[in-house]
Pyridoxine 5'-phosphate synthase
Amino acid sequence: MSATRLRLGVNIDHVATVRNARGSAYPDPIRAAKLAEEAGADGITAHLREDRRHISDADIEGLMQALSLPLNFEMAATEEMQAIALRHRPHAVCIVPEKREERTTEGGLEVAGDENRLAHFIAPLRDAGCRVSIFIAADRAQIEAAHRIGAQVIELHTGAYCDLHAEGRMAERDAELARLAEMATFAHGLGLEVHAGHGLTYDTVAPIAALPELVELNIGHFIVGEAIFRGLTPAIHEMRRLMDEARG
Ligand SMILES: CC(=O)[C@@H](O)[C@H](O)COP(=O)(O)O
Ligand SMILES: NCC(=O)COP(=O)(O)O
């Protein structure tokens, strides 16, 4: 399993963050997505937040028109977002939890407590041909619920693992990594396709990339930051190299 090439989805949200900081037309996330494609990305991820703090509706429109790569469209489970997804029919829709006041996505989606609503919410997206993914914590009950509602994919939230690494809390980091590994195996056993992402950096990507059940990583904030120093293409190439090296 680990010999399979791990897909890299490049998240371009924070190109839009820089653009929006000045209300300018640049830097253009669609240009970034095309460059990511040329640099070997396997997909593009964009999160249309309800408050539109980075990616805009026009960005999603532009990405759908300009991209040959699959778009992984991240969104909250709201009627407004469902209508947008059904209009564009992206390759994948990843349902994420959203809190207006959060700085970034703080945890995984609460699926177990909202199964009935979410099952009805994702059914039309699946019927429209989108692969439905659930952004989720490494938690058995949540994964089982994601499976029951008919999601095809889960994306494991690696944010806690990355934060613990950054804070130097290595024993806790390793425990979280072990949880991610165990839950990747568990989800794969249920027949779910397993992705991972959030907060990954050159320092943290290898142990995640080495998990044999994973087929895709979605990485954005660090790559966009690193692009300031080395350019977007080399920043992506280095992430790709580290992922390939971890896979052996
Ligand atoms: C859902 C998730 O983890 C990220 O993909 C998200 O798109 C990042 O966006 P924010 O940085 O706005 O949380
Ligand atoms: N779903 C995670 C993602 O797309 C990228 O998250 P980040 O690397 O921007 O934290």
Summary: The pocket of 1-deoxy-D-xylulose-5-phosphate (ligand 1) is lined by residues 11, 13, 47, 49, 54, 74, 96, 104-105, 135, 198, 221 (CB under 6 Å). The longest helix spans residues 170-189. The chain has a mean pLDDT of 97. The CA atoms of residues 147 and 190 lie 7 Å apart.
